[in-house]
What we know:
Blueprint: H1 24-41, E1 45-49, H2 56-72, E2 77-81, H3 85-88, E3 103-107, H4 112-121, H5 131-136, E4 141-146
Pfam families: PIG-L (PF02585)
Organism: Dulcicalothrix desertica PCC 7102
Protein name: GlcNAc-PI de-N-acetylase
Amino acid sequence: MNIKIYNYTYFxxxxxxxxxxxxxEQRQQIVDKLVQHLQSFMPxxxxxxHRKDGHPDHEATYNLVAEAIAKSQLKVELQxxxxxxxxxxxxxxxxxxxxxxxxxxLPIANVNERKTKAIQNYRSQLPGIPKGLIGRFFLPHEIxxxx
Length: 147
């Protein structure tokens, strides 16, 4: 098995809470840039917030990435991760039985230190988040939904 892990971050410099209000032109610019990144890296998997996460920016991110993957015409396995979704109400009426057919738990103990550092880089996002939800960020596993 040949596994390449990319530790790469690219910021589009849009304000928090603004992704669901993009103009068509802004949306297309982001999708086109994502297509360029996808075609440059040729990933087999892409990880994105869950499409029904309950946070407008997270859901908009899913939609932008899914559109870019379709436009790129690459065969990419899309993995969705919940952030707010499992905290707010895991049995929400927004979720259907079929949404849970491809759920799995992945051990992440070997990257927990890096994850903790990443969370610390986003301290501005932490105020107002319930302590129980923050505690979930430090579990030795993550939940993913295979699209």
